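Predict both folds.
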Amino acid sequence: MKIIRWETEISDYNLDFVSLIDQTPPIFKVATDSGALFEVIMEPGIVGPYVIADEEHLTNYWVIIKSIEKKIGSTFIIEPSNLASRFEILVDSELYKHYVVATSSSCLEVLSIEPPEIRRGQK
């Protein structure tokens, strides 16, 4: 497994999970260590399935990240992804990339054709 930095506005922050708004599109809210809120927007048709994993799963990523000399940050891409194999209904799975937004206690893992949109949130 290879972990690659996904350059975003929140890459260099320590993040905390705030909420998941289960609507269309789903919105994953995070807060930076300075208190700024951000939303990860998962647009249907671009973003495929997603999962929220707990700290135990996240620990596996941190072990790999610590062995990499380059700074990865809180947003990264997994290559090759084994996440697609968990979703049998996913058509053309080779078109999707595996994006991760890691917080202090969980991580959002998204299969997406294009990077999910990240924008400043509102309180």
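Second protein follows, with its predicted structure tokens after the sequence.
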Amino acid sequence: MKGIILKDFYENYIIRKNLINWILGIIMLIVVVAVFRTKYVFALSCGLVLPLLGTSMLQFSMEQDDIAHFYKLERTYPLTIRQIVLAKYILALLCIGFFLLVSFGLSFLYVYGYRVTTFREGLQIWASGIPVGLTFLSITYLGYFLFGGQKGHHSVCGGNGCFSPGVRHLVLRLWRSGTADNRSDITSGDQLSALHYFGIGKLSSIRSLLRKKN
């Protein structure tokens, strides 16, 4: 499992095309954060964009696996299908966790540097990134396991396009709620739903990969 995790991780940075995509994405985010110092941009950046960056890991590695036909070599590994899927999900969770830490640091910039929100609201906006990241992870990874790198990318774009208005509404309603208790209730419910979607997505990914291998 460690080998699968390291392979997928290195493919995101060793291959020049993937590295350029990451660099451009980070530069664009820095520019947006530096120019647009509003609560709306704060909510979209910390509650949506940064958590989603962690889910893009599998796209680059799946595309490379399709080109190199790595799935043929993968069958010879002393690993079960569940372990292979689990390794890819572990990498995604680690990446989402890393970007949530970056988002947590960025929230201090908006709270104490730009002063566009309070610490309590900033913490709630940051916490909204957890269910957002888990929900999009369940959608995107299931699409890649079902359709592969190229077709999965198109299906994921379509699925995320359908779900993004709802996710954006989730981020905005967290800091528009009237009281702190209401915001806590909303966040807890959304996190439980995200964990439910994550479990369904993981099990569905295992079943889809089992069908392909058979």
